[in-house]
């Protein structure tokens, strides 16, 4: 994949790769909020399914134990252990198996015709460090990460619609987001653009086959809510959304959170706002998309480990993160891309809901791959 440096494939030195080469091993990226959050707050279900299995839905409950809570991502933390016997939905006819996730992710991978080609990106990954050095905040890479990007990519409809969204947010949590008619129209334009791609058509067809949605419009409406619905990470202000956090990035308590997108990284690096420091992992793919787990400074704030797909189209990332949030909310989602295993972690936001108790996306990112 690298045009200017040899391919480096690495993972955390403290973790040995699984003996089964088909099982991915994590490099354990952890969002800062997860590390800070006390039990029962933010990402943790605040109560139990003890003596509540398959009860009727009650919107006043902080978490749920009804038969469809896996569909809506609002089950209590111990639901699967106490009430469930299957992955995905709690009834077998609608369970999404690991094999089905790997199959659909391969179809999405093959459908990504808008991804970067080898000649479109020259990446200079430079120095790999050990995980123990990630907290040092030392810039070990004198050159930018991106030596060259063919910006003709950005004129493609999904790229252009995606880029239009990136300047719509205030990156500091605790400051309310106030979106006007133009910003809301840009959300619709992005959803319309990605839904017109083969990538999202694959995902839509799969999820409808799995009884998750009855129509494309129902799917689109849910995507809009789960990704763009506003909620509060800090004070009472609605200051965040899944899209802002995952793709654009935020600053919370003096640290970078989210920011898992290569296009955003490239554009901010080009403007002199991102300083690439090092990486701890470089994926095994010899074409795009690839995966890089890196350290960087974003206009004065440090990101200790930031994983990102490199060279993927916006619809590809949007589809995989959505798939994993719908099928495995709050759990490790094991996929397959080009014959290599890859895992994504998502978390629902537990402090507020939309619709009939559905959860917003709190975060989504790549957590593992294979050597």
TrEMBL record:
Cellular component, GO annotation: extracellular region
Keywords (A to Z) from UniProt: Disulfide bond, Endonuclease, Hydrolase, Lyase, Manganese, Metal-binding, Nuclease, Repeat, RNA-binding, Secreted, Signal
Domain SMB: residue ranges: 45-87
Location relative to the cell: Secreted
Domain of life: Eukaryota
Catalytic activity: ribonucleotidyl-uridine-RNA = a 5'-end dephospho-uridine-RNA + a 3'-end 2',3'-cyclophospho-ribonucleotide-RNA
Assigned EC number: 4.6.1.-
UniProt protein name: Uridylate-specific endoribonuclease
Species assigned in the record: Canis lupus familiaris (Dog)
